[in-house]
Specification:
Distance between the termini: 9 Å
Order of helices and strands: EEEEHHHHEEHEHEHEEHEHHEHEEEE
Radius of gyration: 20 Å
Strand order of the largest sheet: 6-7-8-9-10-11-12-13
Shape: globular
Number of strands: 16
């Protein structure tokens, strides 16, 4: 039962994103999964080793006739014990797709989750300076929620340029690049320009940055487990959940249920995934979360198609398994289904 992977390369905002497309082949059936680039600094050889360990785990699992949340979480716990969470997530995805295809049903249907209809989704915009912000936002339709990526000190001119062309919901993603002092100095400008939320302003959120009239504080990079949410709860208004970072769909579901029970805003985000990875994120969002899913539309090439919606919206694919299909004119390579 081979687990095959291949490199996928897409370009978004000048950055290169790489994913492993996982193909699980067993007993004459197959299933797709995606392990995005996140956190993998050891290269493809290391990832191949992680996949080999994951393959041993899956090989020991009896052939399933259905999917259930408890069984899926048990599988993901075993996978996370031998491989990084993003690899475990991709293999778990492939297992779900494999089971669903054998049953000729969709993964959401088997797990008892309604297919996510086309809903609003935040659009991420990266720009190096205020002029670039103005240029990019001037082409964005009103009514779309925007998240601006920033690096370092928050420049009021950056916010002013954004607001001259965009009056809708505006958030910032600091990617853990601010100091506490830099953030607190920026609060008056953030409030003045109506910034709704700031994602992960500090590398470690262990101080309460929230102020009356200021933006919501949302944790992102630190949300690696349900236990992390419990630690972050005193300091944040919300969390961003990413299936790959949490080690799989069932583990992400447990994190979502915990965050909602604590009254936190829950957003489902992406890691530069294709339509395949986005399909799993759509299932998580259907459990009750706001969507921040646009990476599949911001890549140069799309090896898979099927996610519904347009700019500023997203909806789950319709079809068996994860519902996606291979793009006919994709120029890269994908695993051979004959394996």
């Amino acid at each position: 039962m081979p687990l095959v992977h291949t490199a996928y390369v897409g370009v978004r905002a000048g950055n290169v994103f790489r994913s492993s497309i996982v193909l699980l082949s067993r007993e004459g059936s197959w299933g797709w999964g995606e392990a995005p680039h996140t956190g993998d600094r050891q290269g493809w050889a290391a990832r191949q080793e992680h996949l080999a360990r994951a393959e041993e785990v899956v090989a020991a699992v009896p052939a399933a006739t259905t999917l259930s949340w408890p069984a899926l979480e048990e599988l993901e716990e075993q996978l996370c014990a031998v491989a990084p969470p993003w690899v475990a997530s991709g293999v778990s995805m492939a297992w779900c797709d494999w089971v669903a295809r054998r049953l000729n049903r969709s993964v959401p249907d088997i797990l008892g989750v309604p297919r996510l209809p086309v809903v609003p989704s935040t659009l991420t915009v990266s720009a190096p300076n205020a002029r670039a912000v103005a240029d990019r936002l001037s082409a964005v339709a009103h009514g779309i929620a925007i998240k601006l990526k920033i690096r370092g000190v928050i420049d009021p001119a950056f916010l002013d340029a954004a607001r001259r062309f965009f009056a809708g919901e505006l958030s910032l993603d600091a990617n853990a690049t601010l100091t506490e002092g830099e953030y607190r100095n920026a609060v008056p400008a953030l409030a003045a320009y109506g910034v709704a939320r700031v994602e992960q302003p500090l590398a470690r959120l262990d101080v309460d940055l929230r102020t009356p009239g200021g933006p919501m504080i949302v944790a992102d990079e630190e949300v690696v487990s349900p236990e992390a949410i419990e630690r972050l709860f005193p300091y944040v208004d919300g969390v961003v959940l990413k299936v790959a970072r949490l080690g799989g769909l069932a583990r992400a579901r447990r994190a979502l249920l915990l965050a909602r029970s604590l009254g936190l805003e829950v957003r489902v985000g992406c890691f530069g995934e294709t339509d395949l990875g986005t399909a799993a994120s759509c299932l998580l969002a259907a459990l009750g979360a706001t969507c921040d899913l646009d990476s599949h539309r911001l890549t140069r090439t799309r090896p898979f198609l099927g996610v519904e919606g347009g700019l500023g919206t997203v909806g789950a694919p319709a079809g068996i398994g994860w519902g996606v299909r291979q793009a006919e004119h994709y120029e890269g390579e994908l695993p051979d289904l004959s394996c």
